[in-house]
Amino acid sequence: MVGYIAHAIAIPLVRAWLATSSQSWHRLPKPTDPPLVHAAGPLSDRILLMGSGIAVGYGALSHDLALGGNLARELSARTGRGATVDIIGDSFSPPAEVWRRLDNLDLARFDAIVFTLGGLEGLYLMPARRWRRQLDKLLAQLHSAAPARLAIVLVESGVPLLGGTPRFSRARLRRHSAIINAEMREACARFTNTTFVEFNPPEGDITMVKGRSTYRDWAQLIAPELARVLDMVGRAAQPIELDEELRQRALDALGIDDQPNAELEDIVESARNLFGASGASVTIIDHDMQHTKAAVGMPRDPIPRAASICSQTIERAEVFVVEDTTTDPRLAGSGWADGENVRFYAGYPVESPDGHRIGALCIVDTSPRTFSPTDAALLRQLALRVQSALWSRRVTP
C-alpha cells in the first residue's frame, strides 16, 4: 500500500518538474526526419527501436545523429552486415501503449525489437507488482503475435540524466530504477527468445545529449549484446504474406503521381551504369497493376501485377535475384521464362516511411549473370535514394 501511495504522489510532482525545470529533457529538440535509418552493408538486419527516453532522440535534430543512427552503425561494424533501424519513440511509452502501436505493425519484417522502457515508470515510483503485470502482459502478447524467430531485447532502464533531477530525490530514484530493472531481467528469464541488455552509462544532466558523442557512446553499450543476439537468429529473407490493405494505404498516402522525376531518372541511369546492365527502372505496385516511375533501357508501359517480377520483390525485405530467368523455378510458366528480352533480374524493395513495401528499384540484363552480396548492398543504397526522393514529395493532409 505504501508503494501505491508513493506512486500517486510522485506522478504530479514529476509532471510538474518536467513542465518547469530547465533540466527537463522535454525542453530539448527532437528529430524531425522520418524515423528510419540505415547503415551500409550486405544482408541487412532489420531492427525496431521502440520506447521512451533514449529512443526518442532528445537533443538531436536527426535520427541519424540520435540513438537509432548510431546503433545502426555500431551494429553494422560488429556484424559486417547492413542494418536498418525503424524508430518509434514517445516521451512516455507504457507497455499498454507499446502494444497498441505494435498491433498495427507487420512484425515479420523485423529481426529484432529493442525496447527502451521503464524510464518514467521509475521516476513515477511505479510499484513493482504493477510494473511486472504490465511487462508480462506485453511480452505474452508479443510472443503470441510475433514470428518465433523474432528476437526481443529489453534494454536496462538506465538513468543517464539523473544528475539533473532534484538532489534530494536521486537516491530514491536510483533505488526504484534498480527495482524496475530487476523486474525486467526476471521477465526476460520467464520468456523465450527475450534478452536483457545492461545499460549503465555515466550519470549526468541535460547537457550530456547536446554533444555529438553521447548517443554514439550509448549505442556502444547496447550494440555488443544486440549483435550477438542477431547472429543467433535467421533474417527474414523468405517471402512473407503482405497486408495488402495497409500496403495500399501507405502507397496512397505518399501521393505518387505520373509526372516525370529527374532525380529518379538519374538514379536508374546510375544503376544501369554501375552494374553494366541493359536496363533499370523504378516501379510502383498499385492495386493490381505495376507502374513505372522511371526507366532506362526498359519499357515504361503499365503491366498487370500478376505479370510483374517486381511484385515478387516486394514480398521480401531483401534483394530478390533471378540469375537466369529461363531456369529459375520461381518464374516457371510466366512470360519471363522464355528469356527473350530478359535473362537476369535483381530488385530491391522500396518502402513507405512506415515500412510497407510499395515498389522496387530493379536492374535487368539480356544475359545470365551472378549477383554478389556486395552488389546487393550497392543496389540497396540506390533503393534508399529512391525512397528519399519519393518521401520528399509526400502529400501531407
Written description of the protein model:
- The protein is α/β, with parallel strands linked by helices and 397 residues long.
- It has 2 domains: 2-232, SGNH hydrolase (Rossmann fold, 3-Layer(aba) Sandwich); 244-391, Beta-Lactamase (2-Layer Sandwich).
- 38% of the residues lie in helices and 18% in strands.
- The protein is built from 11 helices and 12 strands.
- The protein has helices at residues 2-20, 67-79, 95-102, 119-123, 128-145, 170-190, 214-232, 244-254, 262-275, 310-313, 373-391, and strands at 36-39, 45-51, 83-89, 112-116, 151-155, 194-197, 279-286, 289-296, 303-304, 320-322, 344-351, 357-365.
- It has a 6-stranded mixed sheet with strand order 1-3-2-4-5-6. A 6-stranded antiparallel sheet has the order 9-8-7-12-11-10.
- α2 (67-79) packs across α7 (214-232), α3 (95-102) packs parallel to α5 (128-145) and α9 packs antiparallel against α11.
- It is elongated.
- The relative contact order is 0.11.
